[in-house]
C-alpha cells in the first residue's frame, strides 16, 4: 500500500484561545478516514459472504424491514443520525430481500446514536477465530420495553452472523450512563465496572466507526486531555459544534488508581486459560501503573498522529502500539528475559498459534510484516526463525513455557498488589470484584501436595505424543513417579529427563489427562517395583478418570463461584489400584462382606486413590490405606461436599479380579447409607451407623455438623458404645452383619424419643433384660434363676420411681415387651402390661445423697430404716446389706434390687441437668447391686 504524504498539523486552542470550526471538521474527517482504512482491512480479511455483514450492519439498525436479518417488529427502535446507505449496501440488502426499497425517513429522531466495532477486529491480530465486539449506542430516554426489543434484534443479528461463520457480540450502550460510570459492558475482554477507564482507552484505540454520531473525544486536542470535561463544555457552550452531533463517552481526566489493580487482576484471570492473549496486555497494565498518575495512554498516540497529520504515514495498529510501549518499558528496565517473552507474545498474536487461523496469502503478508518489525526494533537475527518453530509445540515445550508464564503471572500479581498498597484506598482495594479475582488467582497458582497443575499452554500443544512412559523412581526423600517421552524403564530412567514428576501414580495419571496428552492411540509403558498394573487395567483406569474429568470438571468456573466458600463437588475413588488378585484376596467364603470377609474377617480394601474436584476449579488427589482410609474418604465427602449432597457426587472404580463388583457394591451401599443418615441435619436427633470392618466394628456419628467415626475393637466395646449416654436422641442403623443372632436389631427398630422401652427375653438358662432409654442408650443385664414376673416388677418399680419425681423436663412414658425366638432363629416381640405397685411385704431400697465440700453424703433407706454416711462412713452400703440379710429366711443369698435412686448430678459424673438420662440411673443401680449381690 502506497502511503500518502503527511498532512498539515492542526492546533486547537485552549478555552479563551482561537478554535477553528473548520479545523474541528477536519479532525472529524481525519478520524473517520482512519476508521475507513481499518474497516477496509477487516473487509479484505473476510470472505465475500461475510463481507455482507459489515455492508448491511448499519442499515439493519437504521430501518425495520421484514425480510432483512434481525427483524423483530416495525416498532423496534431504528434510525441512525448522519447515515445514508450507499448503492452497494442497498444492493446487498436486495440480495436478501428482493423487494427492499430505501426511502429516507422524514423523522428527525434517531434512537440509535452510533455503531462501533472494537477490539482486535481492527488490528493486525484479527484472525478467523477472533470475535467481533460491537457497541450499539442508543438514546438514554428509551423505555425498557424498547431496549428489550432492541436487544432481541441484536441477538437475532448475532445468530445471522454465526450462520456466516462470524462470532459477533453486541453490547447495548447508553453513553450518558457510561459517562457516569454506570452499566459498563462486561465483555470477553473486560470485567465491566472494574475497568471503566481502561475499557474506554481500548475503545478509543481500537474502535472502528461504522455509523452515527462522532465521539466527542476526537475533538479534545492532546494538550487538553487532562481538561477533557471542561473542554467539551467549552466547545458546546460556545457553539463550535452542535451537541447533537457528538456522543460523549468521557475522557481520562480522573482515572482512579484502583482501575489498574482491577484490570491487572482481570487479565491475570484471563491469562490462566489464554496466556498469550492476555500477557501482552498484562505488561501494558504494568507500564500504565508505572506511569501513574501521569499515565501516557496509547489512544493518545493515535490522537497525536491525527492532529499532527501523519496518521496516514504512521503504523497505528492497536496491537503494535501495545508492543512498542512494552518494548520501550522493558528496555528501560533492562528486563531482557521479559522482553523476549513480549516479542514472543506479539509474534503469536499476529501469526496465530496454528496454521488454520488464516490463509496462505495473509500468512505471507504477516510474516513480511513481522520481519519489518524485527528489523525496526533490532531483534536478534534468529528470533523470527525460533518463534516460527515454537508455534509447533510439543508437551515438553508447553510445560517449560508454562513454568515461564506462571513466573510472569506471579510477578505481575506481586507488582500490582504492591501498587495497590501504595495508591489504592482500602475500601477500594477490597471491592468484591477484586476479592473474587484474587481468590481465583490464588486457587489456580497455589501449589500444594496432591494438587494437579493445569498447564496454561495445554491448548498450544499441536504435536501429540504417541508413546509415553510412567516410571516409579526411588528418590532420596521417598519413592515417586515420573513421566517420560518415548520408552523408558526403571533401569535406565536416570539417563532421561522427565516431563513431569509427582509423588503418586494417581497424580501422574490425572496430570496426563487434564493437560490433553491422553488419547486412545497412546502407547503407555509402565514400570514399577511396588505395583502390578497390567496394560488393560492401566488403560481402563485412564478411561475412567478421563470420563470422570470430562463429565464433572469445569476448567474455568464463573467468577461468581468464588463468592462462596470452596466446596467439594465430585470425587472418584479408585480402590486397590495396581493390587493383583494374588495379594491375599483369593479366599473363598460364604460370608461375602468385602469389608469383613470370611471367618477371619478379612477386609478387601487395601488402597484408596482419590481424585476430588472443587467448586473453585481445583483437582486434588490423595492416597489412603485400608478400611480407615476408605472411611476417611467417605466421611470427608459427606462433610465437605457441596450441599445438598448427591449420591452421584462420589464414584467408585475397582479392577480387583473376581472381587471388583462385590467391593464396589459394598462400598456404594455404605456411602448411600451415610448420605441417607447424615447428609441433612436432624432436629433433636443424632443417628449412628454401625458396621463391621475387618475384625472390628465402626460407628459413624455426627457432632457439631461434622461426621466422624471411631473404631470398636471388640463386641464388648460395641455394647459399651450402645450403653453410652447421648446428648440427643440417637437412632441406630445397624449393618446386617453387626450383632447377628441377637434381638438388638429388633429392639432398636422400635426405639422412639421420649420413650423408655423394657424388653425381656427368657432363655433356658436366664432372663435377659434390655432397656433402651429416651435418648437411645441401651442397658443389658442377664438374670439367672430369676422369675420373669418378679424381675420385671422390680424394674418397673425402679423406673416408675425415678420418673415420678419429675427429674426430666419432658414427660416420659414406659413400654414393656416380651421377646421370643422362633425355631428358625427369628426374633419377635409382644407388648405386655405391668403394674409397678409394691406390696407391703417387699423390701423398699432407696438410695439418696447430698453434695458437700467433703463429697457425697449417702443415705440408704431400707423400708423406713436409714443408714447414713455420717454414721457408717465408707461402710454405709455394707451396713445396709447386713440389715437386709436379717429379713431373709436362713439368710438365703438371692439378688437385692434397688427400688429408687435420688442422687446429685456429681454421682453420675455430669454437671448439667439436661445431660441426665435414664441410662445414668440404670448404670448406677447396677453398680450398687453388684456390690450387694456378691
Strand content: 15-25%
- Count of helices? 27
Helix content range: 25-40%
Shape: elongated
Low-confidence stretches: 186-190
* pLDDT averaged residue by residue: 87
**Coarse structural class:** alpha/beta
Strand order within the widest beta sheet: 23-22-21-24-25
Q: Would you mind describing this structure in some detail?
A:
The chain is an alpha/beta fold and 934 residues long. Helix content is 39%, strand content 18%. It is elongated, with a radius of gyration of 41 Å. Residues 186-190 have low confidence and may be disordered.
Q: Short summary of the structure?
A:
By secondary structure, this protein is α/β, with parallel strands linked by helices. The protein has 27 helices and 29 strands.
Summary keywords:
5-stranded mixed beta sheet; elongated; 4-stranded mixed beta sheet; alpha/beta; 27 helices; 29 strands; 934 residues; single chain
